[in-house]
Amino acid sequence: MSKTDKNEIKLIRIQIGCIIKYERLSKGLSQEELSVRIDTTSTTIGRIERAEHSCNWEILILICNQLNIEIERLFSLKSNKELQLIISNTIDLEKKLTKEKNNYYNSLKKRIEKEFALL
To answer: What pLDDT, on a 0 to 100 scale, did the predictor assign at position 53?
Structure first.
């Protein structure tokens, strides 16, 4: 596997988390509410959203079904600009944007920039 492939996989993992979080928040669901609907834990949902956890395809399908996401949308790599927009829109949906969350989003944006630069 080339370095480019590894970077693309990292970006897709980040993208999956960003899309899921955006869609979850846009539907007014907490991680806990989503986890109950698909019979998993809120910790698992959080790890997927933060791209800390590679989940299996079964969980992704269940999440996509609950949030009405076409699964293909998760795996077709968006541009840097599109991912940054998803993050900005997610920030707008946050009910409580703590300093910690703001720092997380800023570091996520930088991480995406870095990964795209390595492609």
So the answer is: 74
